[in-house]
Input
Amino acid sequence: MTTAWTVLVAAYLALLLYLAGGLRRGPPDDREPATFHDRWPSVDLVVAARDEADTLPATLADLVGQTYPGRLRIVVVDDRSTDRTPDVVRAAAVADPRVHLVQVAECAAGRAPKVHAVAVGVGAGRGEIVATTDADCRVGPGWLRAMVAPFADPTVVWTRGPVTTQPPGQAHGFRERFEAIDWLSLMVVSRSLARQGGPWTSSANAQAYRREAFERAGGFGAAAAAPSGDEDLLAQRLARLPGARAVFVDDPAARVWTRPMPTWAAWWRQRWRWASRFRHAAHYHPAYWGGIVLLGLVSAAAVVALAVAPWRPDLAVALLGPWAAKVAAEVAGLRSGLRALGRGDLVGGALLGWALLHPFAVATAALAAAVRSASWTPSRGGGSEATAVGRRPRTAPR
Output
């Protein structure tokens, strides 16, 4: 038992070292960044919304306030809302003709509702660049310009910006700081992997891609029936296109703020939904899938090691030593990553708390996903929550 645990931690530390290498790497070369001179590309900005009448007005205000110098078309896809979401969009369209409402009457068979809604929005446009964000996110006026600027290099097919729940200084209390750190840990990994040559992770709330590359890569594909995660698969397919390059946008203007979960339970249900995507493992890049499996195994083993140590004092050093090395490496690596993303305000006790508690969240969410997949359903308190597939949700799953 102790040997297997030590081997798992050693492999995990090697993975962290690889990610640290990505953090230290600069841009792919020293060339002067390409820029648009005469004309910026046309953009379709797609937002899928279901029962988002409370959050959508602020999001739309941010989107119509973009300083983007090219043609912009904002496509809001109403996915069978039961509230005033369509009315909110219609009112915004009257005030700004760049806003367009597209309504989904039913979800295509074999496709996750949210993925289907985004696909409908992409199909409703003709812009050279497709950008996406969520209906409960906030962005600054320079967000779209920062996300599109890298496409001046014709080899760039995909960009992603950093996402977190709270701007600096606004995460109050341990839970909010924990969640902000958790989001940023994902961003650190995504940034590192992009710097290492492959965009293996993505998110619908802060990404953009060339329409032509999207079509060549097959669009949303194999795991469209998963409750989430097809953005990861799309990014991985885009990265495999000949001569393609992906960019994690470090420009602070590219940051996206998503609403925090209202409770610990809601946060865990969201992670359950995220873990459910990996039931479609065969479609992921093997190296990416290997990293996910390693994270799950290390997290489960860490929980077991902590549970066994009090009952086996003779094994305490063998069980807790690797566990302490894991925590120390995570804290050190994420401290560097947070500072690289301009979030040094989150370095402190909450970071240590995240490293100590995160394995329990990963292990339990993975176990729940293995037993039963989760689907997406709106959360009235903010963001989205997970509902077990097969149970009757309070609202239609999305």
Summary: The longest strand covers residues 72-79. Confidence is low (pLDDT under 50) at residues 379-398. The CA atoms of residues 173 and 368 lie 27 Å apart. The longest helix spans residues 316-340.
